[in-house]
Fold this sequence. Notes:
- This protein is mainly α.
- It is built from 9 helices and 2 strands, in the order ββααααααααα.
- The chain has 3 domains: 2-58, no CATH class; 70-113; 119-174, Arc Repressor Mutant, subunit A (Orthogonal Bundle).
- It has helices spanning 26-41, 47-58, 70-83, 90-96, 101-112, 116-134, 139-145, 151-162, 166-174, and strands at residues 2-4, 17-19.
- Strands 1-2 form a two-stranded antiparallel sheet.
- Helix 1 (26-41) packs antiparallel against helix 2 (47-58), helix 4 (90-96) crosses helix 5 (101-112) and helix 7 (139-145) crosses helix 8 (151-162).
- The longest helix has 19 residues, at 116-134.
- The model is unreliable at 1-25 (pLDDT under 50).
Amino acid sequence: MSIHVSDLGMSPVVAVRIEASSQSVYPDLAVLLEQAERSALGSNNPAFEYISRARALLSAPACTAGGLAPWQIKRIERYIAKELATGITLIDLADEVRLSPSYFCKAFKKSFGTSPLAHVQIKRIERAKDLMLTSNASLADIAFDCGLCDQAHFSRIFRKTTGMSPSQWRKSFTTDKG
């Protein structure tokens, strides 16, 4: 079995494939990625984002007792990616994998380590970062495209998640480009 980046709803430039059979490599790979992330932290390099995503892949949710099944995880990730610009509710997510909302919340938290709505918020910020790097759209348009009600709401969530405003983040990652 292998985990592919597209199964997790991520969209890096180069797809990374991690084979489950090579679990002995994971600790070394995690250390290398941590070192790379630390060295890229101070630079204005989009590679930092991809290194962070690769580290997230290493801790990708697996089927655990009381958690979601792998098919449910993939289905939820695809649904979130497809519906991100719309209002995603807990009931929508639970219905997608045919579970009650209360059981879904517990299973989701066990599988992902966060609540479903916090996970959706993280995905919205990831999409916003991609849009800020790949387009010249206004922050208000990006907020709307990511399912957030307005630019102020987007800015609050973005700052809480990344520690900087969207405009500061965008400038720091686009100034190196000619």
